[in-house]
Structures are given as C-alpha cells and as structure tokens.
C-alpha cells in the first residue's frame, strides 16, 4: 500500500499530477482544492495517498492532510459515492466544510459538488451523520505528523479499573464535551466561542453525546460565522 509520496512535480493536469520520486513517476489524482494548493512544475511536494485497486485499474488519490484522507474513506462508504465523487465533495467543500454540512444536515451544500445529485447528497448526510463526529474529533491529531500515534491511549483504562465502572456517566459526559470542543475548534471556530456553545448545549441537554453536542453547538455558532 502506498500511503505517502514525496517528490517533484513533473506535470500538472486538470485532475491529477505526475510526481517524480527518484526517477519513478506516479500519477496522483487530486481534488480541485488540493491542486490549487500544490506548487508548480519542478517544485517539491508531498501528498498522503490512497491506492484504489480494481480488476483492471490501479489509481492513486492524493490528499494534503491525513484528515482529508480519512474523510475520503468515510465518504466512499456511502452507497453510490465512488472515489471520484468523494474527491468532488472534498474539492468543493474541503474536509471542514463537508463535516459542517453533514452535521447540520445540509444536503444542498453537498449537492454543490460537481456530479452530486440530490439523492446522493441526502444519502451522504443521512448515512454519515452518526459517523462524522469520530473523524471530526480526531482532527487535531490527523492534521499533525501522521506517524505519531497520539490519540489511542485512553481506551484501556476501564479494563484496568473495573471496580470504578459505576461513576462512568460523569467522565463520559466530560469526554463527550471534550471531543465536541476539539471537533469545533478543528472546524475553525474560536476556542472561547466553541467552549461556550458546547457548555450551553451540555447544560440544557445533559444526556447529549458527542454527535448531538456538535450538531446543537453548530446551530448556536452559525450566526457568528
């Protein structure tokens, strides 16, 4: 599996670039947004990649961050959304815009991507609404260096202390709020505004999980954007 490519750009096309890596050229398909952010021919670049393998086809898709790569994977889990359709959505909205549209149930924003009709856009929103918060909460770690695992150490704690399972509701609520706050900050909201919105939702809806906190907090934050 080819997960990352670093080299020099030999050629730029409408939907892909040719990257020379020590004499070997790799054709990497990218979104409009990613292409616009890449340097010119002859300059160095690096992209995280996803290799699509089919019976008669091998295609590399490139992303500027691991967060965008994870969103591409998530979008492809929706029936009717292939690799190029997922790239079109990311090209039109970016990872943050796609996350915001899904959590707010804004199918029209998804439909703004080239080739995405109303039925597919609605399906994306419905199928990913419960899955999106997981990727959003990982945003800070995925935007940093990819080889450093910094977000997978908290899970074993309950198994080590089974006797303390009873107080779990308290820490769970705090964890939901922390994850929601992290997701909102990753979407570009200020720490203070995001924290205030999450606290307001958590106060009025104590049973809210991460997805609910994000969704309701986004509704409070929308007038401020």
Automatic annotation (TrEMBL):
Its taxonomic path starts at: Bacteria, Pseudomonadati, Pseudomonadota, Alphaproteobacteria, Rhodobacterales
Any one Gene Ontology MF annotation carried by this entry is: four-way junction helicase activity
Give the comment on domains: Has three domains with a flexible linker between the domains II and III and assumes an 'L' shape. Domain III is highly mobile and contacts RuvB.
Which Pfam family, any one of them, does this sequence belong to? HHH_5
Annotated GO CC locations:
cytoplasm; Holliday junction helicase complex; Holliday junction resolvase complex
**Family in the record:** Belongs to the RuvA family.
* Protein name per Swiss-Prot or TrEMBL: Holliday junction branch migration complex subunit RuvA
- The scientific name of the source species is Gemmobacter fulvus
Q: Tell me which Gene Ontology terms the entry assigns under biological process.
A: DNA recombination; DNA repair
InterPro entries membership? DNA_helicase_Holl-junc_RuvA_I, Hlx-hairpin-Hlx_DNA-bd_motif, NA-bd_OB-fold, RuvA, RuvA_2-like, RuvA_C, RuvA_C_sf
Query: Annotated region Domain I: where?
Result: 1-64
HAMAP family on file: DNA_HJ_migration_RuvA
């Amino acid at each position: 599996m080819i997960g990352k490519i670093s080299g020099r750009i030999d050629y730029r096309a409408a939907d892909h670039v040719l990257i020379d890596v020590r004499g070997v050229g790799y054709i990497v398909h990218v979104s409009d947004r990613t292409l616009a952010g890449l340097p010119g021919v002859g300059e160095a670049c690096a992209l995280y990649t996803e290799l699509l393998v089919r019976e008669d086809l091998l295609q590399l898709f490139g992303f500027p961050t691991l967060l965008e790569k994870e969103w591409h994977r998530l979008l492809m889990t929706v029936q009717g959304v292939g690799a190029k359709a997922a790239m079109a959505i990311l090209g039109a909205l970016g990872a943050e815009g796609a996350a915001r549209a899904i959590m707010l149930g804004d199918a029209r924003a998804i439909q703004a991507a080239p080739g995405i009709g109303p039925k597919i856009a609605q399906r994306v929103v419905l199928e990913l609404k419960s899955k999106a918060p997981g990727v959003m909460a990982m945003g800070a770690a995925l935007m940093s260096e990819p080889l450093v695992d910094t977000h997978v150490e908290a899970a074993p704690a309950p198994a080590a202390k089974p006797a303390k399972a009873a107080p779990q509701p308290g820490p769970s609520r705090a964890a939901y709020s922390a994850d929601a706050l992290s997701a909102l900050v990753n979407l570009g909201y200020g720490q203070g505004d995001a924290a205030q919105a999450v606290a307001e939702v958590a106060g009025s809806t104590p049973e809210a999980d991460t997805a609910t906190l994000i969704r309701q907090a986004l509704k409070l934050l929308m007038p401020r954007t």
